[in-house]
Amino acid sequence: MSVTHHHIPDSMLAAYAAGNLPHAFSVVVATHVSMCAISRAALGAHQAVGGAVLETQDAVPVSEGLKCDLLARLDDPIDLPAAPAPRDGIYPGPVVEALKGRAPKWKRLGMGVCQDILFADKEGSLRLLYIPPEQAVPDHGHNGLEMTLVLQGSFSDETGQFGVGDVEIADESLEHTPIADPGEPCICLAATDAPLRFRALTPRLLQPLFRI
Amino acid sequence: MSTLDPPPTGPAAFEADTPTSRGRALSVETQWMLAVRDQRDRQAFASLFDHFAPRLKGFVIRSGLPAAQAEEVVQDVMLTLWHKAAQFDPHRAQVSAWIYQIARNRQIDLMRRGNRPVPEELAEDPEAEPDASQILALEQEAQHLKSALRRLKDEQRDVIEKAYLGELSHQQISDQTGLPLGTIKSRIRLGLNRLRHELKDLKP
């Protein structure tokens, strides 16, 4: 497992364990945990707290017959959630699932930067970003909170360097210009909790690029 | 209390050589779960049901489902536990933590009508011998965690419960600076170090 330096904060891991994180962020958390043993352990700790909360709940008697009914059904086949997908190249299982098994379909945004929108609803959106070496990461208009997880290469900004497995969490207050480091193209998984603004997207995306 | 019940009898691997450390044995819940996993022991499953189903029902009702639907979730979770028992690893998770995550996943899948994203599974070494001291250390941690929860003031415990019942957003959890999360944070951190040690050699 790779050594990552920028992890997911506890509040997000707790919300993820409890299932109260917007879908796009959940994919980023599941992907980061797939890449980082420290965060996997931290998630385990939150699940342990959840288990303690469960065990200290007041018991509510279940209906008579529920147990017998259940015991009689143990041999019946049931629909279980499919096992998590395995990693494919640089893409950890949760990204493979978000891609629904297909390869990324890169759409050009200019200056060699490409994106593939994997998911978007009123709670937020999830995309893959491809940034050539030494190019700026486009400002995809974060009105809310944004999580960016590096899958390949690295980028740097005013707050530090982000390598494979690292997550940068930014809100409106963070003025930063992330730039892909020299070497490999940088591929990131980015989630935001603001709805996508498709019409405004292109000019907004190009704006910071012209500033270089 | 079902914790006073005797552990299931039978040719369970863990009973023939019940791992102890400083005179302590595995909790009955863990022994039941291992009997379900390794022997497909229905009596042990029934014991797990007696212990967890009423708590699970209380937990699910607290997170907002009506009683009838709560029982459906209880059934689903207990059936999932039976069918996915092979994935239970006492070195990495307590039975209660494992059931907690199954229950939350189930509720989210019901609400979203789709599967929630979950991390890749770690590959287990099938040859690996069970390490009793690691399992016991984790159990001890979980015991400390439970007593820490019980010692909290009502309003503090309420915030923790809300967070882990999925009633608070990550922002709301993060705004609870210090108090309740801080109280259990040291416990989380201790458990964390143990888990980190356990996870460092495993690869997905």
Automatic annotation (TrEMBL), chain A:
Residue ranges annotated for the ChrR-like cupin domain, each copy included = 104-192
Q: Which InterPro entries match?
A: Anti-sigma_ChrR, Anti_sigma_zinc_sf, ChrR-like_cupin_dom, RmlC-like_jellyroll, RmlC_Cupin_sf
Cross-referenced Gene3D superfamilies, in alphabetical order? Anti-sigma factor, zinc-finger domain, Jelly Rolls
Q: What is this protein called?
A: Transcriptional regulator
